[in-house]
Write a structure and sequence with these properties.
11 helices, single chain
Length: about 280
């Protein structure tokens, strides 16, 4: 029995180690190549052959990546803030109030999430063009809101429904207005869900490429990091050192954002699954 238990433990340890290596190795290769001055010529190795920051300098000086980072930060910030506010108000409406066509609205929200994003490229392009917002960050934010809101409303609806109505009624009996009850009672309880939906909105707005490329067109000053990364890929050759350096830069904000809120994300996902 001891030998069998020991064998199972060793097997689990080996499989876990292999899984970790398989998961972490691409990120390690990216960072290692980013700091390797010879990576641009295709000489990548497990360890940087010539440790240098030259790839990062090239990305910021020749690649104008600082501007692209600022554009992506603006788009992601406005997408997260606006989608969080609108999704929270809409989720309170569908979870707390009974109105005509309420079920139809919920089914429509669910149906929107089932449509492949590629199928929406042309319709959204036409709408943004009619609004005369092609090539602008404002048009891109509006499109990302169209992606984020259905998911945010559907997910936050479960969090709002999980809050006992008796807490709101107690606040009313104590003389609190609806706004005071919303700020002091409801908002703190649904905050984990708000964080969870904000993370998905942030990642979508930060990494999305197809719609950014389609809507921004040739307005290079408004390019996001996803489009900016494309410039390091050539027709016959690629600047892998710059690609890996830019990819590392793109990954850092997402990692920082996730680390800061990962505790609330895990608790929020569990809480949101309790009641819908």
């Amino acid at each position: 029995m001891r030998r069998r238990s020991l064998g199972r433990t060793i097997t689990k340890a080996v499989l876990t180690t292999l899984l970790l290596i398989f998961t972490i190795f691409p990120a390690y290769w990216m960072v290692s190549s980013a700091f390797d001055a010879r990576a641009s010529s295709g000489g990548q190795s497990l360890l940087p052959q010539e440790f240098s920051f030259v790839n990062f300098e090239f990305v910021f000086t020749e690649g104008n990546f600082g501007r692209f980072l600022a554009n992506s930060a603006i788009v992601a910030l406005f997408t997260v803030l606006i989608s969080a506010a609108l999704a929270l108000l809409a989720s309170v409406a569908v979870a707390r109030f009974r109105f005509r066509f309420r079920t139809g609205v919920l089914m429509m929200i669910l149906a929107v999430q089932m449509v492949p994003l590629e199928a929406l490229v042309i319709p959204l392009f036409v709408q943004v063009r009619d609004l005369q917002l092609l090539g602008t960050l404002t048009g891109l934010v509006i499109v990302y809101l169209a992606f984020s809101l259905p998911f945010g409303i559907w997910m936050l609806r479960g969090f709002v429904a999980a809050v006992p109505v008796e807490l709101e009624e107690a606040a009313y009996l104590d003389g609190a207005s609806w706004g005071r009850m919303f700020r002091s009672v409801l908002l703190p309880l649904v905050a984990p869900g708000l964080v969870a939906t904000s993370i998905f909105s942030f990642i979508t707005a930060w990494n999305e490429f197809i719609f950014a490329m389609t809507l921004l067109g040739g307005e290079e000053q408004n390019f996001t990091v996803a489009i900016g990364l494309k410039q390091f890929f050539g027709l016959h050759s690629n600047d892998w050192g710059a690609v890996m350096a830019a990819s590392t830069i793109i990954t850092i904000p997402v990692m920082i954002f996730f680390v800061l809120v990962q505790g609330k994300l895990s608790s929020g996902l569990v809480a949101g699954a309790v009641k819908g």
